[in-house]
Amino acid sequence: MTERLAADAAGIARGAARLCAGETVAFPTETVYGLGADATNAGAVAAIFAAKGRPRFNPLIAHYASAAAAFADVVATPLAERLAQAFWPGPLTLVLARRATSVVADLVSAGLSTLAVRVPAHPVALALLAATARPVAAPSANRSGRVSPTTAAHVLAELEGRIAAVIDAGECPVGVESTVLDLTGARPRLLRPGGISLEALAPFLGALDAAPLDGATQPLSPGMLKSHYAPTLPLRLGAREVAGDQALLAFGPPLSGAALVFQLSATRNPEEAAARLYAGLRALDAEGGRRGLAGIAAMAIPETGLGRAINDRLARAAYRDTTD
């Protein structure tokens, strides 16, 4: 049975003790709930993959209590240092070359010579990392490929009995995962849009590397698989009409005729929509499934600010591999 811990000093201390003992503990960040394990313990990291049913070629993000702690495991470029000063703690992950002296288990980076690192902004996450006093590997706390969790109840709905504990601190304020930047090339490359918008990053980055990645290349960070964040019901994007046997993920005034509606933001606010995205997908998937609905239709969201991250998650949630 999974232990549900309060987000107080005693709960954080208990969670840190379980992490140090090699167990898996879900905890809140400003983005989504992460499933944490001691990143220096290969056996503990392997338990993350087992609990999630996650492919082992898909690397994880290592979380730290400070930029100094993160840069002890990776080679910080001048750009990385500027970005860390501006956006850490916060929803930004940097992919950098691993140091030869890194204490992080190879399984965290799936055997790559790079490592994805970040310092989360959530006070409970920072307190847990400080109490653990070591890097914590943490993908989203859900079954692999499914909708990410933004509450402890979401975590328990999928991982009850499969993980040691979850620290319950209510809803995550940002609601979509961190932005991931690869800084190992001549130019920075956006690997995943997320909680820090490109508009906010633009003054630091200059020209991005826009060359397409080789489709056979191993993922460099989490969130790069074509099918990800997926509900059980089929998801249709850019809906301008909705059938009576479909649920609607609305953004602004809802389309008429849907059997079920979840409103991301009545005022078309991308920040509000991002915070509600995964809860909306989960709610429509669960209730739509109970009612036997045919699928979920999602209204269009502008490709600016956090809308870019929302659209990325929706596109991956809607992807269906049609190959044999």
Question: What does it look like?
Answer:
With 324 residues, the chain is of the alpha/beta class. It folds into 2 domains: 3-205, DHBP synthase, CATH 3.90.870.10; 235-318, Rossmann fold, CATH 3.40.50. Helices cover 30% and strands 20% of the residues. It contains 9 helices and 14 strands. A 10-stranded mixed β-sheet has the order 1-8-2-3-7-4-6-5-9-10, sandwiched between helices. A 4-stranded parallel β-sheet has the order 11-14-12-13. The longest helix is centred in the C-terminal third of the chain and has 22 residues, at 270-291. It is globular, with a radius of gyration of 19 Å.
Short description:
This protein is α/β, with parallel strands linked by helices and 324 residues long. The chain contains nine helices and 14 strands.
